[in-house]
Write a structure and sequence with these properties.
Layout: H1 2-34, H2 40-50, E1 60-64, E2 80-81, H3 83-88, E3 96-99, E4 113-117, E5 139-143, E6 164-167, E7 174-175, E8 179-183, E9 189-190, H4 196-199, H5 209-217, E10 220-225, H6 235-243, E11 248-251, H7 264-272, E12 274-280, H8 291-297, E13 302-306, E14 321-322, H9 329-341, H10 343-346, E15 356-360, H11 363-372, H12 386-391
Parallel strand pairs: 1-3, 1-4, 4-5, 5-6, 6-7, 10-11, 10-12, 12-13, 13-14
Antiparallel strand pairs: 2-3, 8-9, 8-15
């Protein structure tokens, strides 16, 4: 009996050893023989060959679902624009149709993208409810150029509703800023962003007698055009603080003087009479740079900016004065007076005009391109809480400059 038990154990051990040897041999063959024969580069190459991206030729239809404030056309020339419009704006993609006509296509689900202006409370209008049906391939776009301080549409109920954002913020899916700079020589658009300063190579300022004479004949210090009073940023208080030390003429509803800002007379006045244009924003918000600054830069006048943006991401260096970089109003005014008394330093702020020009942005071109981009069909995103994305850490109440 004992012998039989020993033989059984021996047989079991031999069998276990044999199985272990077989497994070890198989692993050895796989790791040492088969593995080198597997080319992972070849796998990638075969995948690329078998899955070549096919550019979709189908025209993309974009519906402007709400008005842009009171403007149904969103400042477009007609109710519906197509390839000719995109071609005229020199858009790389022209196979898009942009319309505010809800009946252009048979049903709302036929549109590739729907654009909603979130600065207005459209969702609660009896005339424009949210679509009752939605295609799984449709892109819903939240669009606004206003800051969170002026977002009247309540975003709290829009969970998993919007796919893309189209705003002035640089972290938007489509950046809809007010203007861009364009290189005069190459025509290249310099888009705002963290590397803008490195793209704008500094140029040595050459003495310009014409500019010097222009600066010398200016007789007035500061000017501001403003119609929205008592704002979130307290810009009115800042101007009043500056007025205690220097002259600032305020035009519009918030001031005592009148001149249509877009009139040729006003533009000429900025170049001929005033040294500084106070382009103060109504809100201190991340990336919020409005048309005020760009309007000033069209003339030969230095913009003095006040906002929450990092202006180095938006404009050429040494082309503006940021009030937030000064500790007090007195410090700011002292520097402005210094430049006024030293025109050879004042004119250095116009170096960029020989190298760049200001151009309009084309957000719908960006939208058209993105709709045609590879991966749009495969990758669908939703903003789970767009209110949090739009409001959290986006604005602040306290300015850096004390006033």
């Amino acid at each position: 009996m004992i012998r039989k038990m020993r033989r059984g154990r021996l047989t079991l051990c031999l069998a276990f050893g044999f199985i272990t040897l077989v497994i070890a041999t198989a692993l050895l063959i796989h790791t040492q023989c088969l593995k080198p024969s597997i080319s992972y580069y070849q796998i990638l190459e075969e995948h690329i060959q078998n899955h070549k991206p096919i550019t979709e030729k189908r025209t993309k239809y974009i519906l402007l679902y709400t008005n842009f404030f009171e403007d149904k056309l969103w400042k477009l020339p007609t109710e519906t624009v197509g390839p000719d419009y995109f071609r005229a704006t020199q858009c790389p993609r022209t196979d898009c149709v942009l319309t505010s006509n809800h009946d252009l296509l048979p049903v709302v689900t036929d549109y590739d993208a729907l654009v909603f202006h979130i600065a207005e409370p459209w969702a609660y209008s009896v005339f424009r409810k949210v679509p009752s049906v939605r295609s799984s391939r449709q892109i819903f776009v939240a669009a606004t150029m206003e800051s969170p301080a002026h977002t009247k549409h309540l975003l709290g109920g829009d969970h998993d509703f919007f796919n893309w954002t189209m705003t002035y913020r640089l972290d938007s899916d489509i950046v809809w800023n007010y203007n861009n700079f364009v290189e005069r020589d190459s025509g290249r658009v310099v888009r705002p962003g963290k590397d803008l300063q490195s793209q704008m190579v500094g140029h040595e300022v050459v003495f310009n007698q014409t500019l010097l004479e222009m600066a010398t004949v200016k007789t007035k210090m500061g000017v501001q055009f403003i119609s929205h009073c008592e704002t979130f940023s307290r810009r009115d208080d800042l101007v009043r603080a500056i007025q205690r030390f220097m002259e600032v003429d305020v035009y519009g509803k918030c001031g005592t003087m009148e001149c249509p800002r877009d009139s040729p007379r006003c533009a000429k006045m900025l170049t001929d009479e005033y040294r500084y244009y106070f382009a103060f924003e109504n809100s201190l918000c991340k990336d919020y740079v409005t048309e005020k600054m760009y309007y000033a830069m069209q003339s030969f006048i230095i913009p003095v900016v006040f906002g929450g943006a990092d202006y180095t991401k938006f404009v050429p260096p040494k082309s503006y004065i940021d009030a937030q970089q000064f500790a007090t109003v007195q410090d700011l005014v002292e520097y402005l007076v210094f430049l006024a008394e030293n025109p050879e330093h004042y004119i250095k702020y116009f170096w960029w005009k020989d190298h760049y020009r200001i151009a309009d942005t084309q957000p719908f071109c960006e939208l058209c391109q993105k709709l045609h981009a590879i991966g749009t069909k495969e990758k669908m995103q939703y903003y789970k809480d767009i209110k949090a994305w739009w409001f959290d850490e986006a604005c602040w109440m306290d300015a850096k400059i004390k006033f």
